[in-house]
Amino acid sequence: MTSNDALASPSGPGTPDVRPVLAEVVRSGFLEGRHRGSLVLLAADGSVEYALGDPAAPVFPRSSNKPMQAAAILRAGLDLSGERLALAAASHSGEDFHLALVATMLAEHGLSPADLQTPPDLPLDPVEAEAYLASGRVREPITMNCSGKHAAMLAVCARSGWDTASYLDPAHPLQQLVHQVIEEAAGEPVAAVGTDGCGAPLMAIGLTGLARAFRSFVLAERGTAERRVADAMRAHPEYVAGTRRPDTWLMRELPGTLSKMGAEAVQALALPDGRALAFKIEDGSTRALGPVLARALELLGVDAPVVSRVGRAPLTGGAVEVGEVRAAF
After folding, report:
1. pTM
2. Extended strands (E) in the chain
3. Do 311 and 291 touch, CB atoms closer than 8 A?
4. What is the distance between the alpha carbons of residues 269 and 165, in angstroms, rounded to a whole number?
5. Are 102 and 145 in contact (CB under 8 A)?
6. What are 73-91's pLDDT values in tens digits?
7. CA-CA distance, 214 to 22, in Å (whole number)?
8. CB atoms within 10 A of CB 246
9. In which region does residue 191 sit, left (phi positive, over 0), alpha (psi from -120 to 50) or beta (all else)?
10. DSSP helix/strand/coil, 33
11. SS3 state at 45
12. Closest to 33 (Cα-Cα) out of 298, 287, 295, 308
């Protein structure tokens, strides 16, 4: 009996909603902990091939919604391409080339970093954060990992004559368009609207809808906003994430793949033939992302060195490897 069999969700009236175990934490041969969640895999034709938990239940995809937000920016009339469009869909690492392009994008539209409404933050990448602090710099809005998206949102507002001070209001014309694009791509209505960590409106959809959205982007007709976003992200993955990030590795080493993680341990990915996946670790622990993603890719039939690289999540004790976080399905 597997751990998922032993810890399967109970059924019946009044029973608690317990998600299945997606990952196990094993230290020195001892099962130290478990990470539960929901997951869905779509076949190339869009049908559900494999599911765990409740992938129809709404979740906040967090930054996994960024491709849809970037498509809305294009639909609103901002002509972005290449690295600029990739950065508009990014959770960037805060590397120098990220911050330089954010500043350039703002300046190109008569804006400045002072217009950003992202909260002051350190670089997302720990290596970059250490170097940033060592140089004597302090938290700034431009350093926050969503600043590329916000720069693009501000730019399209400036171009369209929309108010830039209220660009994060859910009632703002741009955010209403984002809402529409997410519903179209997911094939389902937005279940709730909240506020993301960067301050932008956040639309909840199911994991199946999220996987459908990514699938629709890679299969979209050339020249559409959706395909332009997918192509820019895949051509410039280091601007979507960073030089030390799994999304970058996957899009670089699996040609045609579209991949985007989100906070609270959300991941969505689509392969160029339409196979797709989405999952969320219920407790938000990002340490389980890699092992679960690697196992999901294996179940989709992906066999490549990058899968093992992404899936490796060692545990250390006294600076020595003593265990791992591993997939449990």
Report:
1. 0.94
2. 21-27, 30-42, 48-52, 58-59, 192-195, 201-206, 258-262, 266-270, 276-281, 314-317, 320-327
3. yes
4. 33
5. no
6. 999 999 999 999 999 999 9
7. 22
8. 19
9. alpha
10. strand
11. coil
12. 287
